[in-house]
């Protein structure tokens, strides 16, 4: 009993344990109140503490259950809470929130497919000259991302049953059901039928073991459940505190005369910080497939779970639901799809591919602020 008590006390002293708890307490105290400048600064600090804690606890869970389940846990957890954030913004945003779902989902696709993939490839190539991953698994993930994005973000611009870049009720229901079913197939293939396609590529010459697990002993089941609980708390704190600072972001965007789509981009950047940090850390350990799983898996979850949820929420939400992309973003999406295919097919990438993806991501961010 004394050993168990000392173990719990040691864990309680770690900042990754109290960080999410403090962030959640700040969220509870600040929710529904007008925040002065110093309070916003405190919320931002708690936000980043929760992000770093989420990465740590996701890695503990991933080490316990192995790949690809570990990256799937983080991707799904963040996306589920991201859906709640989008719905909250749409409820309180009025007419200006009609395109929040589109802006946030498309930003998530560009961040994951270009920002996270590009940064991971850059880190992996700088470490080992060549970043190696499984082309079968990554190619399948990319195909699902392109299919889901085209069905939900591109087609509404060209359909004629409803005026504007919107789906009719029947089309929205079809897109939602199709997205959910395709996501279910992806999870089944990734975790059961072809699990080996999504495991890190063994590289004995670089010190990567044949097993997908690290040499260190995995954490106990109790530690994994403890981390799972703190991961949920951290993710709730991330999205909740992001919601708290979103009015400040909206005011800053409006006062600067920037497009309202910038709000979705900034919020997506904050919410996807856990996946970004986890993917970069995996790449630095020469586990590029884990990075690819995190990037493409997050994009798949972002579309496959968000669109059905928003479609269901639109039953009681007032106003139109704008999903169709404009010409500028459509060009960026096509460019991303083509470049990603050229990157994934060989199963090997260098500094060049990472730089190309990061340049596309930089163009997306710049054109979001200056269309």
Automatic annotation (TrEMBL):
Segments traversing the membrane: 12-31, 37-57, 69-93, 105-126, 138-158, 170-189, 224-242, 262-282, 294-316, 322-344, 351-369
Residue stretches making up the Sodium/calcium exchanger membrane region domain: 37-191, 227-369
InterPro entries noted in UniProt: Alkaline_pH_Ca-Antiporter (IPR052946), NaCa_Exmemb (IPR004837)
Localization annotation: Membrane
Keywords assigned: Membrane, Transmembrane, Transmembrane helix
Topology in membrane: Multi-pass membrane protein
The keyword RNA-binding appears for this protein: no
Single GO MF descriptor: sodium:proton antiporter activity
Lineage: superkingdom: Bacteria
Entry-linked Pfam families: Na_Ca_ex (PF01699)
GO cellular component: plasma membrane
PANTHER family according to UniProt: SODIUM-POTASSIUM/PROTON ANTIPORTER CHAA, SODIUM-POTASSIUM_PROTON ANTIPORTER CHAA
Protein name as annotated: Ionic transporter y4hA
Protein species of origin: Streptomyces vietnamensis
């Amino acid at each position: 009993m004394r050993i168990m008590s000392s173990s719990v006390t040691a864990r309680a002293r770690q900042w990754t344990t109290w960080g999410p708890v403090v962030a959640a307490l700040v969220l509870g105290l600040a929710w529904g109140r007008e925040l002065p400048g110093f309070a916003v600064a405190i919320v931002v600090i708690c936000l980043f503490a929760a992000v770093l804690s989420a990465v740590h606890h996701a890695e503990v869970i991933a080490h316990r259950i192995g790949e690809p389940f570990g990256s799937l846990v983080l991707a799904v957890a963040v996306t589920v809470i991201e859906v709640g954030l989008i719905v909250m913004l749409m409820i309180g945003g009025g007419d200006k929130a009609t395109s929040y779902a589109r802006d946030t989902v498309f930003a998530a696709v560009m961040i994951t497919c270009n920002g996270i993939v590009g940064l991971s490839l850059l880190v992996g190539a700088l470490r080992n000259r060549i970043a190696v991953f499984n082309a079968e698994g990554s190619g399948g993930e990319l195909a699902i991302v392109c299919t889901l994005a085209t069905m939900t973000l591109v087609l509404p611009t060209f359909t004629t049953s409803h005026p504007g870049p919107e789906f009719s009720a029947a089309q929205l229901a079809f897109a939602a059901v199709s997205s959910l079913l395709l996501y279910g197939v992806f999870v089944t293939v990734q975790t059961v039928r072809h699990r080996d396609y999504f495991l890190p590529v063994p590289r004995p010459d670089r010190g990567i073991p044949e097993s997908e697990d690290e040499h260190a002993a995995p954490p106990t089941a109790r530690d994994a459940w403890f981390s799972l609980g703190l991961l949920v708390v951290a993710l709730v704190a991330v999205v909740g505190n992001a919601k708290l600072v979103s009015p400040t972001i909206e005011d800053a965007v409006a006062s600067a005369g920037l497009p309202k789509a910038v709000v979705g981009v900034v919020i997506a950047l904050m919410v996807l910080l856990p996946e970004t940090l986890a993917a970069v850390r995996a790449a630095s350990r020469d586990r590029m497939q884990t990075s690819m799983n995190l990037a493409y898996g997050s994009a798949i979850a972002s579309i496959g779970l968000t669109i059905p949820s928003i479609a269901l929420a639109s039953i009681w939400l007032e106003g139109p639901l704008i999903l169709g992309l404009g010409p500028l973003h459509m060009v960026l999406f096509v460019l991303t799809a083509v470049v990603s295919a050229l990157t994934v097919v060989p199963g090997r990438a260098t500094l060049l591919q990472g730089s190309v993806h990061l340049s596309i991501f930089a163009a997306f961010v710049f054109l979001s602020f200056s269309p």
